[in-house]
## 1
Amino acid sequence: MRRTFFIVAGILVLLAGGGFVLKNVFEGSIASARAGEVSQRAADELQKKIDDVRNTEEAGNQGKEIEVSETELESYVLYELRSQIPTQLDSIDVQLSPGAVAADTQLTFGTMNTGNPVVDTLVTGTHNLFIKGKLAGAEGRGKFDLEEIRVDGIPVPKILIESLFKKYVKPKYPDADLAEPFDLPWGIEQLSIEQGKAKIRY
């Protein structure tokens, strides 16, 4: 349990420093491309469509709806957002189900320098991180409710996550709040998660 505590603490700090990967996935991937293989091409097509959504907002057009698949999100994270993640992302498996999103990732941490040698020793190396939560958006606001975190297959209690978040993340990022709603970008009005896809209305 002590090992899990330190691993989660390190991961929370790194995710916060990287701008919260899950939030970036859904704010950065508001578009759709053909479902298929994870690839640079799919990420490039998705980026083009993201630009189109931004342009639509600037032009004041509304009333459109698009879909985003799991494969599209994986492609975008691996090829476009990977450089923003403050550790080595080896793999990601995005899982969309009604009202919920999950990410099953493998992360490799190099030599750490958190100021705590015990944390540095325990977090260094390759770890599997699974995060799941409810995600929805309406009237231009989104909400993510964290439901589950597992580190190397070991469930991490919510009270421990909250404690670690307060201790390691809040001092560096005072505005960070796992429970607070956030503004949906680019004039997006509604976000709903279905089996295997997300629907976005803007």
## 2
Amino acid sequence: MALESANYVSGLVATNPSGSDSISQGDDHLRLIKDVLKNSFPDADQAVATVVVKGTAPTTQVKGTIWYDTSTGILKLNTAATGASPSWLNLNGPSFCSFHVTMSSSQSLPNNVYTKLNFDTETFDIGSNFNTTNKEFTAPVAGKYWFNTAMRSSSTHGSDDDLAIYFGDTSAGTNSAYAQESQFNQVSGPAYVTASNTMNISCIMDMDASDTASVFAHTETGAWTMGNGSTVTFFEGFRIA
């Protein structure tokens, strides 16, 4: 009878068994197929997810199904509890983003006005979601995003100052402080301590697609010059979920 020797699926011969084999010898083929399947899928102790490669979503999925969408080049993972209502998490493409930006020159900030910091130089921008013209990050998809910013003034300065990460809600047309750090330099009476300011702030934003994040600073008294040292004045972030 025609019976190949195989340990894995790739070793099976599609034309076996031949038409001349007796029905009674079929058990040899069945045992071979069972051995090959157990060797090829040793960890399949329950329903297994598959990897689907095509331009449209698979009509049947389980939690853990991986779909490579050939129409967009995006790898997706079904995270839903049931396959009936899949929830696709992008593993690359628009949802995979990270950036770090600095300022090419110092920036003089006016008195008593919240001013957007001039982050115009990208160290890296994976996903191309930071706009150096508008000085802001735009969320490519809905999700949770982590941001961090730091600053140092370029000269001594005596005032109460603020550093804030702003959230721009495109659906509502609003832009306001989401997280803020303040430095109070007045210690007694009308006198201020004159010092080179340093501040740092981090936050996690729940964002919809097209919402924005940017950095603003504010001073109460006199002009304030923001330094552009790349290790002390920067803005960075990435999508975490």
## 3
Amino acid sequence: MSTSTQPSGLRKTLQASYDEALQRVPEALKAEGFGVLTEVDVQSTLKQKLGVDIRRYKILGACNPAFAHKALSIELEAGLVMPCNVIVYEGDDRRATVVAIDPTQTVAASGNAELAALAGELKTKLARVIDKLA
């Protein structure tokens, strides 16, 4: 159960169930100064809008207010990559996988060194969130 960094983000498959993960993720985020601003139930939305069935899958929009303020102070359009999305989905084995966005990937195109440094700090915090879920 190691944390890995992939183009899609910081990932960990847990021994926990989907429901357990959904309870633990907000707590782990809170410990690093994040709150969950939004929660999108992708499974329910796709069932309702398209009539399709997919695995249980939620997108949590996490925000660290202090970092958000710093990012917007550096570059007003940094809001395009906010909040930091964290996904939780149920695997075929019924275990939950949690993936957090890698902020260093989303701000790479900005070319702003100060914003890139802030993204590095955010990545460290999100990696700790993912590690705490083990």
